[in-house]
Structure to design on (135 residues):
């Protein structure tokens, strides 16, 4: 299981992603805005991770947690929550963007595509199916 430990800031949410207590990468999300669809980071909890592919977001991951109302279809309060490349809170609409380092000029992450590749290899090689998000 992957574990994401987050820090909630006024303008974004910054996280550190771990696998078996070993640091994997940083993450950036939008700030906590009471779980508002498309604008808030997603709630803390345990999510299923699955490969996801679309023309807009090729070769990334989707997150699902039925109990928290997160899934891929419109029946869920929060749908299409993905882990995909991005550098700043404005690059994600309720999703998570990984980065190898924190951005040095403003709140965000850097080397997001490289972090995404690292994450894909880790998830595939270790057959990881779950993500636990905590504050």
């Amino acid at each position: 299981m992957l574990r994401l430990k987050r820090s909630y800031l006024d303008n974004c949410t910054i996280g550190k992603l771990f696998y078996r207590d070993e640091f994997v990468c940083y993450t950036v999300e939008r700030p906590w805005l009471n779980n508002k669809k498309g604008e808030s980071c997603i709630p803390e909890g345990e999510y299923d991770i699955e490969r996801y592919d679309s023309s807009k977001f090729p070769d990334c991951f989707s997150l699902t947690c039925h109990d928290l109302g997160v899934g891929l279809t419109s029946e869920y309060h929060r749908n299409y929550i993905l882990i995909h490349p991005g550098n700043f809170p404005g690059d994600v609409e309720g999703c998570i963007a990984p980065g190898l380092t924190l951005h040095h000029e403003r709140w965000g992450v850097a080397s997001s595509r490289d972090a995404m590749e690292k994450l894909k290899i880790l998830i595939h090689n270790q057959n990881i199916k779950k993500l636990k998000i905590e504050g």
Q: What stands out?
A: The chain has one domain: 2-134. Residues 15 and 32 are 13 Å apart (CA to CA). The domain at 2-134 is CATH 2.40.440 (L,D-transpeptidase catalytic domain-like).
